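@channel sequence for tomorrow's demo:
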Amino acid sequence: MNLAKRRQHNNNCEEDMDTDVPESTGYGNWDIMVAVGLVDTVERRCWAQQTSTDWWDRIVLQVWNDSQWLRNFRVCKTTFMELCKLLSPAMKHRNTKMRAALTVEKQVAIALWKLAMPGCCRSARNQFGVGKSTVGAAVIQVANAITDVLLSRVVTLGNLQVVMDGFAAMGFPNCSGAIHGTHIPNLAPDRLANQYVNCKGYFSMVLQALVDHKRRFTDINMGWLGKVHDAHIFRNSGLFRQLQEVTYFPEQKITIGDVEMPIVILGDPAYPLLPWLMKPYTGTLDSGKEQFNSYRLSKCRMVVECAFGRLKARWCCLLTRLDLSTTNIPIVIAACCVLHNICESKGKTLMVGWEVEANRLVAYFEQPDTRVMRRRAAHQRGFENQFHDWPGYGVTVVCVSPCCKPSHFVEPLSHL
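structure tokens (generated this afternoon):
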């Protein structure tokens, strides 16, 4: 019976689908059939919303002065055009039948705007007249182009003697740089989330950098999980291997008193004491050691702290939780370091409001201390376990009396 019903159903479907159009009908025959009215046509709907690009085409490119460029894109127009010229071979796209490709200048402008402004992609979308997904794609494409084309050319040691003379003028002879690490906040990843929680209790990736006397990065190491200690990152870096093998700096020693001193870098107490790495004295200190820590080593080592501060003040995206994949976060961090070096080399000073804005963002986007959250959750679980067998456990109680506190009531923690 079921078989008969199934055959009848198939026959009815074949009758409904039957047409007078032969199977061999090609594209040319279809056009003829549409023309004579044998086939109904469907009006094509718009596949992209109409947007305006007047702000970028007519105002930014034609009206804005260098001060406005610097305030919004962190570089003046001349530096912007030089950057676009360098990145053009790696970023130029062809036009398609569907739409014209974005120019290199517009892609770079979208990326710089998004890196400098901590807001969502919606603001860049409205300003440049592009889609939200286009903003995200432009940031990653520009960051990849910067790291591929400029990273090895811009983040480099440069003239070693000039660097050592700069540190000598600050009070530390035969020094070639200061090393330190900083945490870049990010959203909780899908995998190994607990490995991203740093010593301050929030999710992050580590940027470790060597900085010269002019606050320029000469070596960067990014992408390590926030939980990893600075010393471990350093020992597993290419910089450490080169310094151990005496291939990063030449063997150039000076004599201080009766001690031969090689070229050194400066670090904080978290780093190991090595022949070529100086760190502050620890333990009980006399006046001489305290003076060495404060007036010599710490004074020169502060350039790396200042470099990180200027980096984040320019590119405020590094102050918020980066909403990117764990693969793209190191690329964006490296691109920001390259752009920082370009700005510092051009002598572009920080504008007055940038540091104020950065401090405001740090307070506004204060990172949650997950250690406190976990302790509270563990304490609450222990508290609720005491009452797990009580009648009525798990019922949400609402009290409007001002003398009652929320801690008086127990609610299930299944959502944690």
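heads up for whoever presents: Residues 13-25, 387-416 have pLDDT under 50 and may be disordered.
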